[in-house]
C-alpha cells in the first residue's frame, strides 16, 4: 500500500493539468462543486458521509518519487508538469456540508475554490469517497429509523471490498449504527467492534453443547450464542443449560424471523432467561428491520444491504466547474449545456428554511457571492440557517472535521438534522425528496 | 494505511480462534470452502476475480505490535491467543478456481485446508476480495461480449470507494476490458491507463476552440477531444479545424447515442476525418453497449455500471466449514442444517464436462477425497477437465497466480473459458446458469 493518495485518481485529471499549465489557464481561480443531480434510489433525503476521510486523504495527496517516476516513464505529462506536481500541496479553500448533514438534489456538498489545476486534481478522489460513503450512510440512516431505537451493528465487511468495508463501517456509524464487526474500523476510527462466533465454530465441535461450552469458557456467560446451526429450539435450550439464565444473548441467522423470534422469546422466558437478549442477522435491510421493529428483537446485525447502499451502491454525485476567473480577474459562471446533464453555474451559498415548528421546508441555494456571507433580510435569517461550513482554509484542514472527534460530531449532527425533517422523509418507499431545492 | 491485512477482518474470527484455542479444537485439521449458493443477479455464469489479490493479501496477513496492542487494550482475546496470533503465518493448503475462470452455483472457488484457527482467520478477507472483484468481473465479461470485440475502458473510479476502484479496474481487465482511467491500477497492476479531458477543461477556457487548442498543443493531434460541452455538431467541426483530419478521436458523453453517433460519424467523414475514432461514455451498461455495438462507435468507456457490478455489487459468496478431523484423526463432513442456508458438506473435487464439440455441458462436483486426484474411468477423463488448481502449498503462494503475470494469465484464461460456454451463456437476460452443477 502506498501512503500517498495522489494516484487514487483518473489519468485525465493529470492530462488536464498538463494542458492547462501549457496554455496558461491552470492558475485561473476556479470554483468546483460536488453535488448530486438527484437522490439515487429515489431516496427522500441523502446523508453526507466521507467528508472527514476526504480531508484526511487530501493531506496525503502528494506526488512523491514513486508517483513522479511512473508518470515520467509512461510519458503521461510533460517535465514541467512533473515539477509542478512535485511541489503540489492543496492551498485553496473548501466549504461544504459538514459530515452527517442531510442533503437534497443540487446541494453543493463540497465547494473547492482554488486554481483550476489544484481543484481539478481532487475530483476523482473526492467523488470516490463521498459517492461510496454517502450511499452507505443514506441506507444506514433509513435502517436506523426503521429499527425504532433498537441498536444496529454493521456486519457487511465480507460483502464489499476490503478497504471499502472499513469506510462503510464508519459511514454506518455516522448515520446511527452503534457498532461494527470490522476490526480496522475499530482501530482507525474508534468504532465499537463486536462479534462472537459463526456456524463453523459450532460445526467444528463434536456437538453444539461442546461448542457452546467452549465459547462460554472463553467469552463468559454474557456472550452471544448462535442457536440456529441445527434445531433452533434445541439450540436455545442447550444455550441456557450451558450458560445459565444470565446468558447475554442468542443470535438467529435463518428462518422466518418474525415467527422464530416470537417463539424464541417465549422459550427463553419459560427457561427463566428473561434478560437474555435476541439478536437477528439474516440478510436484513431497512424493510425487514422495519417489519421486525415491534417484535421482541433486541438488536439487529445488518450486512450486505448496508455496505452496498441497499440497492444504491453509489450516489451518482458529480464534480463540476461552476465558475472561474478570466484573464481580467472577473468571475465567469459556467455550466455544461447538454440537456440531460445540465448544471447550474455560479458560486452558491445554502440555507435551510424551517417553519415555525422547526421543521425543514426547503433547501435554498443562493446564486451569488458564495458561502460565508450574511443573508439579506432579517426574516430569512430568523427562519433559516446556514448549511455550509469551512472545511479547509488556505490549505489547512479544520481539525474539528477529522479524526474521532469529527466522527463523533458527525454522528450527533446527523441525529439532529434528521429530527428536523418532515415526517415524509421517514417513508421507506421510493419518492420525491422530503423538501424541495429552490434556487434564489 | 497499515501494511498488514490482518485487521481487514471481522471481530468474531478472532473470538472463535480464542475459544477454540482454549477448548483444544483450534488445531483440528479443517476444510473451508468459498462458494456462491446461486449466481447473484440471475447471471448465466460468474467470473472468478480477486484470487491473485487474495494470495498477495494472505502474505501480508500478520499480527504486528500495532494489531496485538489493540487486541490487548480492548480485551478481545486472551493473552495466549495474542501469543498464537503473533506467530501466525498461514501454513496450510489452498486450492481453487484459477482467476479468470467461470463459475456456477456451488463451485468451490477457494478451498482452504489447514487447522481450524488458520482457516477461519482468512474468512472475512477472502470473502471481501472475491465477492467484490468477482461481481465486477462478472459484469465486465458481459459488457466485453456485448461490445462485440470493440475495446472497453473502465472509467468508474469515482463511483466506488477509492481502493475498490483500483481493484475494480483490475477485475474488469481480467474480464476483457482493455484499459482503465485509474492511475493506481496502472502502477500496481500494469494495466494501460487512459483519459484526456473533462467538460471542466473546456469550460475553463474562454471558448471551446481555445480549450481544444490547449489540449492538442499538450497531447498532440492523436488525442481524444470531448465534443459535447456545448453543441455537438459545432464541437466536431471545431475539433477537426483545430486538430486537422489526423485527430485521434472524439468523445461523446451525452445525448441519444445511437442517433448522435451516426450523425457524428457522417460529419467526421464529410470533414475528411475518416480515421478519427468515436468513443462514447454516457452511463453505459451491457445493455446500452449491446445496443451500440453495430453503430459506428469505435470504443466504449464504462463507469458506474461496471464498478458496481451492474446491479449486483456483491456476489453473495460464503465461506463454510465443510469437513474437519475429529480427535481420532477421522474426517467428518459437516454442514449447517437450516433449510434456507443448506450447504453440501465434505471435501470436493471439480471437473467441467464437455460435449464432442468442446462446449461445456456441466460442472461436476465430486464428493470424496478433495482436489488433486485422478478421475475414475477413462471416459470421464476424456470428456472433462479438472478445474481446481493449487494456489498455496504448505503456506507458499504459487507465483504464477500473483503479480502482473497472474493477471495476464487470468485475462487469457477468461477469454478461453468463456469461449467454451454454450451460446445461452451470452444472453443478457436474467435466467438459469448456462450449465448445471451436478453433485456426484
UniProtKB/TrEMBL annotation, chains A, B:
Record PTM text: Transiently phosphorylated on a His residue during the reaction cycle. Phosphorylation strongly increases the affinity for substrates and increases the rate of nicotinate D-ribonucleotide production. Dephosphorylation regenerates the low-affinity form of the enzyme, leading to product release.
Gene3D superfamilies, A to Z: Aldolase class I (3.20.20.70), nicotinate phosphoribosyltransferase (3.20.140.10)
UniProt pathway annotation: Cofactor biosynthesis; NAD(+) biosynthesis; nicotinate D-ribonucleotide from nicotinate: step 1/1
Function: Catalyzes the first step in the biosynthesis of NAD from nicotinic acid, the ATP-dependent synthesis of beta-nicotinate D-ribonucleotide from nicotinate and 5-phospho-D-ribose 1-phosphate.
Residues annotated as transmembrane: none
GO molecular function: glycosyltransferase activity; nicotinate phosphoribosyltransferase activity
Boundaries of every Nicotinate/nicotinamide phosphoribosyltransferase domain copy: 152-343
One Pfam family named in its UniProt record: NAPRTase
Matching InterPro entries: Aldolase_TIM, N/Namide_PRibTrfase, NAPRTase_N, Nic_PRibTrfase-Fam, Nic_PRibTrfase_pncB, Nicotinate_pribotase-like_C
Superkingdom: Bacteria
Organism of this sequence: Leucobacter ruminantium
GO BP term, pick one: NAD+ biosynthetic process via the salvage pathway
Catalytic activity: 5-phospho-alpha-D-ribose 1-diphosphate + nicotinate + ATP + H2O = nicotinate beta-D-ribonucleotide + ADP + phosphate + diphosphate
Name of protein: Nicotinate phosphoribosyltransferase
Family stated for the protein in its record: Belongs to the NAPRTase family.
Ranges where the Nicotinate phosphoribosyltransferase N-terminal domain occurs: 8-131
Keyword entries, A-Z: Glycosyltransferase, Ligase, Phosphoprotein, Pyridine nucleotide biosynthesis, Transferase
A single cellular component GO annotation: cytosol
Amino acid at each position: 500500500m502506498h501512503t500517498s493518495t495522489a494516484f487514487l485518481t483518473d489519468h485525465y485529471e493529470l492530462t488536464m493539468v498538463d494542458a492547462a499549465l501549457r496554455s496558461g489557464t491552470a492558475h485561473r481561480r476556479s470554483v468546483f462543486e460536488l453535488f448530486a443531480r438527484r437522490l439515487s434510489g429515489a431516496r427522500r433525503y441523502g446523508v453526507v458521509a466521507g467528508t472527514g476521510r476526504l480531508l484526511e486523504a487530501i493531506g496525503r495527496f502528494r506526488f512523491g518519487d514513486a508517483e513522479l517516476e511512473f508518470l515520467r516513464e509512461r510519458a503521461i505529462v510533460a517535465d514541467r508538469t512533473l515539477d509542478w506536481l512535485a511541489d503540489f500541496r492543496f492551498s485553496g479553500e473548501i466549504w461544504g456540508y459538514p459530515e452527517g448533514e442531510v442533503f437534497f438534489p443540487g446541494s453543493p456538498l463540497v465547494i473547492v475554490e482554488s486554481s483550476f489545476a489544484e481543484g481539478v486534481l481532487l475530483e476523482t478522489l473526492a467523488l470516490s469517497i463521498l459517492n461510496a460513503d454517502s450511499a452507505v450512510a443514506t441506507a444506514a440512516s433509513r435502517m436506523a429509523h426503521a429499527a425504532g431505537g433498537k441498536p444496529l451493528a454493521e456486519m457487511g465487511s465480507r460483502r464489499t471490498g476490503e478497504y471499502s468495508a472499513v469506510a462503510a463501517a464508519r459511514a454506518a456509524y455516522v448515520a446511527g449504527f452503534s457498532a461494527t464487526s470490522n476490526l480496522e474500523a475499530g482501530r482507525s476510527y474508534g468504532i465499537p467492534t463486536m462479534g462472537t462466533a459463526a456456524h463453523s465454530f459450532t460445526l467444528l465441535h463434536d456437538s453444539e453443547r461442546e461448542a457452546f461450552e467452549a465459547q462460554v469458557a472463553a467469552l463468559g456467560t454474557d456472550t452471544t450464542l448462535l442457536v440456529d446451526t441445527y434445531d433452533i429450539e434445541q439450540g436455545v435450550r442447550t444455550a441456557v443449560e450451558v450458560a445459565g439464565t444470565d446468558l447475554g444473548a442468542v443470535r438467529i441467522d435463518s428462518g422466518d424471523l418474525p415467527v422464530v423470534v416470537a417463539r424464541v422469546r417465549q422459550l427463553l422466558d419459560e427457561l427463566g432467561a428473561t434478560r437474555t437478549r435476541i439478536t437477528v442477522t439474516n440478510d436484513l435491510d431497512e424493510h425487514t428491520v422495519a417489519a421486525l421493529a415491534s417484535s421482541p428483537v433486541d438488536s439487529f446485525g445488518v450486512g450486505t444491504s448496508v455496505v452496498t447502499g441497499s440497492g444504491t451502491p453509489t450516489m451518482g454525485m458529480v464534480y463540476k466547474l461552476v465558475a472561474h476567473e478570466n484573464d481580467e480577474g472577473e468571475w465567469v459562471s459556467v455550466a455544461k449545456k447538454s440537456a440531460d446533464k445540465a448544471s447550474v453555474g455560479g458560486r452558491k451559498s445554502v440555507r435551510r428554511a424551517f417553519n415555525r415548528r422547526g421543521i425543514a421546508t426547503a433547501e435554498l441555494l443562493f446564486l451569488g457571492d458564495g458561502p460565508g456571507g450574511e443573508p439579506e433580510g432579517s426574516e430569512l435569517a430568523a427562519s433559516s440557517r446556514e448549511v455550509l461550513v469551512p472545511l479547509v482554509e488556505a490549505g489547512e484542514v479544520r481539525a474539528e472535521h477529522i479524526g474521532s472527534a469529527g466522527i463523533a460530531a458527525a454522528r450527533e449532527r446527523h441525529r439532529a438534522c434528521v429530527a428536523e425533517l418532515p415526517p415524509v422523509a421517514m417513508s421507506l418507499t421510493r419518492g420525491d425528496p422530503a423538501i424541495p431545492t429552490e434556487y434564489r
